[in-house]
Design brief:
2 copies of one chain form a homodimer. Chain A has 254 residues and is α/β, with parallel strands linked by helices. Chain A has a single domain, classed as Alpha/Beta hydrolase fold, catalytic domain (Rossmann fold, 3-Layer(aba) Sandwich), CATH 3.40.50. A 9-stranded mixed beta sheet of chain A has the order 1-2-3-5-4-6-7-8-9, with helices on both faces. In chain A, helix 4 links the parallel strand 6 and strand 7. In chain A, helix 1 crosses helix 7. The radius of gyration of chain A is 17 Å and the shape is globular. Chains A and B meet through helix 6, strand 9 and helix 7 of A and helix 6, strand 9 and helix 7 of B. Strand 9 of chain A pairs antiparallel with strand 9 of chain B, so a sheet runs across the interface.
C-alpha cells in the first residue's frame, strides 16, 4: 500500500478521482478509471481566484487522463480553494479589485502577489510530488509534466526552474517581470501561450517571457483575441505536447 | 465523367494519385484510395526550388488524405518542377545564389522574385480550382483550404486575398515586404508559422506579417530554431487546423 493518505475516492467524468492532503495542502489526483497502470504524471497549476477542482481543471484533466492515460494532480494554491486566506491575501485581493474597478494597472499587483504565492507554493508542490511518486502507479522514475496558465505560470516557472523531475511544461498568460530570470534557468521543452490582442498583458511582455526560456525546444502559440478569449483548442494542443514529450500516444484524437 | 483530363493515375502511399494539366500548368491530385467520396479540398503551394511532388508535398498530402479524407492538389509554380525556366527565372536564381555565396542579404531578391511568380501563379491557381471543382468528388460548394510555407506563402497570401472560395489557410516562413497589404485583405482563419531564431527572416518581420492578417481567428506558431529547423509536428498541427475549419475529423491521431 502507498503512504499517501487519500481522504476521498470517487469516479469523475470517467476518471478515478482521489482527494489527498500533503503537509496540510489539499490536492486531487485524477487517474484512468480502467485501473492503476504505471503512467506519466502531469501536475496542473490552477488560475488566480480559482481552485483545484475548477471546471477548467476537470476539463483539462479529462483530456489528459482519458486521451492519454496520464495521472493528473492539482493542489490548491495558498489562499485558494479549501485553504484559508491570510490578511496578506485579503489585502492584495482588495488592491487588485480596486485597480480593476478604477482602471489602474493591475500588472504590478498581480506580479508581486503571485511572486509571493510562488515562494510558498514551490516547496508545497515539491512535497506533493515526493508523496505522489511513492504511489506504485506513478513511481520515482516516470516522466513528469507541468501545465499552468496565468497564476499557474507564475507558480510553475519558479517550480520548473528548480525541479529537475519535471521534464516538459506548458505555460502562458502571465507578465514576465518576476519570471524572466527563472525562465532563463529552464531548459526542458516548453509550449507557451499568449493572446495577441491581450488587453491586460502587453504583447511585447509576453514575447519577452517566451524569449527568456533557455529551452532548445520551445513553441509559442499566439492567438488573436483578448485575455479571456484563449481558445479551447490550446488545451488539446497541450495534451499532444505532453504525449510527445512524456512518451504516450493520444488514443482519442484531441 | 469529369472534364479535367487526368494524364496519369496510380496509387501512392495509400492514396490515389492523379496527374493533370490545366492551361499548360502541371498538377497532381491526391485522394483517398478508398474511393471518390465528396470531401473538402486542400490546395498546397510548394517551396522555392522544389516542385509539386517533392517529398515534403507527398508527406503533407499523406497526413491530409489518409488522416482526414481530404482531396489535396499541388501545381508546379512558374519556373519550377516540370515547367521551363525563363531567362528572368535564371537571372533571379543566379542573383540569389550569388547573394547566398557572398553573404549579401537574400531577402530583397526572394521578395521581388516571388512577388513576380505570385502574379503569374494566382490566376493559374484560380483556373486549377475551377477545373478541380468540376469533379463530382470535390464540387463547387465544398470548403477549400490552402497551405504553403516559404514560397507557398509568397504565392498563397495574394491568392487567398482575392479568392473567396478558400476559407482557411496555413502560411509561414516568408518576408512580409510584398505581402502585408494582401494580408490585410484576408479575414479567413489563419495558422502562421515562424522560426524564433530564423537567421534569414528577422523575428520582427515575421511578427509583423502575422500581425497584418485581418482574420478574427489567427494563430501564430513560433518554434525555437533556425529557418530549416521548422519542426515536423507543425505539419500535424496544420492537419488539425483544416479538420477544424473544413469540417472533418482526424481519424488517425496526427
Amino acid at each position: 500500500m502507498h503512504s499517501l493518505p487519500f481522504t476521498a475516492e470517487s469516479p469523475s467524468n470517467g476518471m478515478a478521482e482521489r482527494d489527498f492532503t500533503v503537509g496540510g495542502v489539499p490536492g486531487v489526483l485524477w487517474s484512468p478509471a480502467s485501473g492503476a497502470d504505471r503512467a506519466p504524471l502531469v501536475l496542473m497549476g490552477h488560475g488566480g481566484g480559482t481552485h483545484k477542482k475548477h471546471l477548467a481543471m476537470v476539463g483539462r484533466a479529462h483530456l489528459l487522463v482519458n486521451g492519454c492515460g496520464f495521472h493528473v494532480a492539482v493542489i490548491d494554491a495558498p489562499g485558494h480553494g479549501d485553504r484559508p486566506r491570510t490578511a496578506y491575501d485579503e489585502q492584495e485581493i482588495a488592491a487588485l479589485r480596486k485597480a480593476q474597478a478604477t482602471g489602474e494597472p493591475e500588472g504590478p499587483i498581480v506580479v508581486r502577489y503571485h511572486a509571493r504565492l510562488a515562494e510558498l507554493a514551490v516547496p508545497e508542490w515539491q512535497a506533493t510530488l515526493d508523496a505522489l511518486q511513492e504511489l506504485p502507479e506513478i513511481g520515482t522514475d516516470g516522466p513528469v509534466g507541468y501545465v499552468g496558465i496565468g497564476m499557474g505560470t507564475a507558480i510553475g516557472v519558479p517550480l520548473v526552474a528548480v525541479e529537475p523531475r519535471i521534464t516538459a511544461a506548458v505555460f502562458g498568460l502571465m507578465w514576465p517581470d518576476a519570471l524572466v530570470e527563472k525562465a532563463k534557468q529552464i531548459t526542458v521543452p516548453i509550449e507557451f501561450g499568449m493572446q495577441w490582442d491581450n488587453e491586460r498583458i502587453p504583447r511585447e511582455a509576453s514575447l519577452s517571457l517566451f524569449d527568456a526560456f533557455a529551452s532548445k525546444e520551445k513553441t509559442l502559440h499566439a492567438n488573436a483575441g483578448k485575455h479571456f478569449e484563449w481558445p479551447r483548442f490550446e488545451a488539446d494542443s497541450a495534451v499532444r505536447f505532453f504525449a510527445r514529450h512524456l512518451g504516450r500516444t493520444v488514443t482519442s484524437p484531441a
